[in-house]
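Hi F.,

I've been meaning to write this up properly since the lab meeting, where we talked about keeping a consistent format for the predictions we share between groups. The idea is simple: the sequence comes first, exactly as it goes in, then the structure tokens exactly as they come out, then a line or two of notes. No screenshots and no reformatting. I'm using this chain as the first example so we have something concrete to point to.
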Amino acid sequence: MAPRVFRPYDPTAPLPGPADLREWLPPDHAVYLLSDLVDALDLSAILAVYHQGDGGGNPPYHPVLLTKLLLYAYMQGVVSSRRIAARTYEEVAYRVLTVDQHPDFRTISDFRERHLAALGDLFPQVVRLAQRLGLVRLEQVAQDGTKVLANASKHRAMSYARMGSAEERLVRELAALLDAARAADAAEDAQFGPDRTGDELPDDLSGELARRERRLATIRAAKAALEAEAEAEAAAVRAADAAERQRRAAAGEPKKPGKPPAPSGVPQPAAQRNFTDPDSRIMKNSDGAFVQAYNGQIAVDAGPHQLIVGQSLTNQAADAPHLDPMVAQVRTTLGLLPPAWTADTGFFSAANVVAVTEAGSTAYLPPSRDAHPPPRRPAVVERVLDEAGLRTTPVALPDESAAAAAMRARLATADGRARYARRKSTVEPVIGQLKAGRGLRQFLLRGLAKVQAEWTLWCLGHNLGKVLAALRAEPALRGRLATG
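Output, unedited:
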């Protein structure tokens, strides 16, 4: 029997291929669209920091190249500078985007670090660009928050009460180790003579002393930070009370009852601080687990493109305080608000309802999670029952506020049910795309300011992916992008 004949295979032979790498990609590939989109943005804040050099050394990589490389990588969920640098060799799209240039990981990391704020400022530009392209409908916005792990272990956190006891213990241990070191020095002087300088320590004690001294310094710094935060909060409470009393006096209103508050300015015993990332906090995750995390907030347009029109990140676990700032951010970015603003139970408060109303929108924020929500019925059925006065009457809870009762009544209407039902399919898929689709499980950077910028880059990458998908699906939009 004749031997089997295979196609030629020689790993050492030159690879056939086009002379131009761009021929390896389709004309509407995302890298081309991303390049055009970034060219339409204002990068002056990034370019302004560079000045005319003296001509010595190798010229640096172009800031526009590095900007496009970072944004394309975040769009794909690639955030490690080493992985980004490797892909400029391993993937054709990255080679085309960088024109076959290969900045090393340190260059990429330093560029991101240097321009974190300026890169974050590109987010509202992309949102406004999407608005001009007609991709933002602004019929309804849904807001939600998600806990994202900090680059720190919760086991590296300590409460204020434990800090006090640990500080006392370390002071006692340091004193005991120093006494032992002196005794060892005295014994060696008696044995070998007084030629030692007295500064040496036995090797087995010097390391323990240094370790405990570093630990003591870290704990004392954390205690001081917690005490400073507590004092700042106390000062804010006193200032707010004084302002309210002055307002009442100027308006001729009765004095505020009770004595002025006298907050102690001392941290609560359970107040914690993490030694690895002091700005992160212990938070309760959606599965009930307590994690070291930050709270990332997004507001998503309910249109088909699921664009993030507002985003923020804080180390405050509660969701309610984030609604008013998000409303203000969206209005500043887009110039107006949608007719409806929806969010889940965690965002409800009478103040938030008033804030949304005064901003020019209508809030749909359930006061509590109903154990048995009313069944969803066809819209025509809901309309007939509403007109006949047969819709389900919301049951007021004991001691429920007027704002909560009014919100229950609003959500019980056909329009209210439809608005709130749309919330889940608007914002929750976007969180899933960020965390499960692109792999955002833990932040890379540390410190609130840097993590805020990193969160912005993740949201910007999401929006870029959505805009580029729309540009590929609707070629007519590319002309509007070029003339925008």
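Notes:
The domain at 137-153+279-447 is CATH 3.30.420 (Nucleotidyltransferase; domain 5).
The radius of gyration is 30 Å.

If this format works for you, I'll send the rest the same way.

G.
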